[in-house]
Amino acid sequence: MTGILFVLRSGVPWEMLPAEMGCGCGMSCWRRLRDWQAAGVWARLHQVLLERLHGAGEIDWSR
To answer: In this protein, which residues make up the domain named Insertion element IS402-like (predicted)?
Structure first.
């Protein structure tokens, strides 16, 4: 997941994922992202994070 998040946040191409991060090759991360997206993992993760943040009073829903 570290490699996926790094690429998504930094905008670097998948094939330029730094090897020193120890995340495997960028294409493996890309395939994992694709598979998780198709399986609904990201949508569920987003839902869980929102629920936890809401429960902790860390989300300002007034905006």
So the answer is: 2-46
Burial 19-46 (b: 16+ CB within 10 A, else e): eeeebeebeebbebbeebeeeeeeeeee
Domain count, the chain: 1
Which position has the token pair 């495997």?
A: 24
Q: What is the pLDDT of residue 27?
A: 94
Whether the CB-CB separation of 40 and 57 falls below 8 Å is answered with: no
- What mean pLDDT is reported for the chain? 93
- Domain assignment present for residue 21? The answer is yes
Q: Are 15 and 24 in contact (CB under 8 A)?
A: no
Rounded CA-CA distance 13/21 in Å is 15
pTM: 0.74
